[in-house]
Amino acid sequence: MSHGVRRVLQNKEALEAKKLKDQSKIRDYITLTSDVLNRKKQNDWSSQAFQLTTELLQVNPEFYTIWNYRRRILLNGIIPQSTPEQIRDILAEELSMTMAALKVHPKVYWIWNHRGWCLDNVPSGPGTEQEGDPRGWEKGFWDRELFVVEKMLDADPRNFHAWSYRRIVLANMPIPKPLTAELAYTTRKIEANFSNFSAWHQRSKVLSSLWSKGELDSNKSKEEGASGILYHEYISNSSLKEFDLVHNAMYTDPYDQSVWIYHRWLIGSGDDKDILEREIEVIQSLLEEESGSKWCMESLVHYKRLLLSNHASTTDTSTLKRDCMGLLRRLLEVDPSRRARYEEIELEIARL
Fold first, then answer.
1. pLDDT tens digits for 310-350?
2. What are the sequence ranges of the domains in the chain?
3. Which family does it belong to (predicted)?
4. Could you give the CA distance from residue 67 to residue 49 in angstroms, rounded to a whole number?
5. Is 201 helix (H, G, I), strand (E, B) or coil?
6. Cβ count near 338 (within 10 Å)
7. What backbone phi and psi angles, to 5 degrees, belong to 5?
8. Measuring CA to CA, which residue among 26, 10, 72, 14 is closest to residue 45?
């Protein structure tokens, strides 16, 4: 039994037949690869060369050199001879081809990369600057691509390739999607699975953008959610606060690192003493229930060190240092593989 799949015992004849079949496949692959690479050297931009790249990529979709050659064939041989309508159809076929590949290989960079290239090269149309919508095709392609990414994330919510590609799609849509709508999307994904690190990461990207653009106040959104229309858009009549979402995740699975990393990002440099002390109290209460949680202990040490660094004049430094040393001793017991790291932190605290 391997990965839940029962091994099937084969007799000597069956094994020999399989070996011969595999050898034949290898010879065919080597021959095909040699042919395609030779055509590449000769700058062969023909339809036959294009078809051969299809055959080779179906066998090995991680052969990025062949993806590059395929695009050069399109740019130098096929697209220059095509009308805008034909180019649109060719790129649609490329997207269909890569979609079939993604169903089998959802985490191959080069497939996602090729899809992005196809979308970047959608021609203007069907209208013109004088009549109709000159970006109609682009809008249709990008809208469908967002739908495709959402389907891929429904199938595997933690596929970080799909999350990275989703950011590319959102950044390039002719009609931008509201950032608050994306925040709502990350909320749904996180509430479905608190250990979805990619969703937490996406959430941090969206909030950072909203804060930098002045569309949300960073302090208020952490404590109160958003207000007015923005609040309604991304939380949909809920009184959920950012820290409440994090606390819920912490208590659901205190041993999962995703929420702790996000929480550390949310706290930042620890300039707000009140938030630091409140969060320390929350985590301390959780540690009393989950005494073996490494992440509880590590976070308490980190935040208490922030108090020592940023607010030493208004805190009991002796107690904080003593607390940190006690937590580090416990961490040495529950996480001995990081002994050197914890001992180094002890030395740093002793020097404060």
1. 999 999 999 999 999 999 999 999 999 999 999 999 999 99
2. 268-352
3. Belongs to the protein prenyltransferase subunit alpha family.
4. 12
5. helix
6. 15
7. -110, 125
8. 72
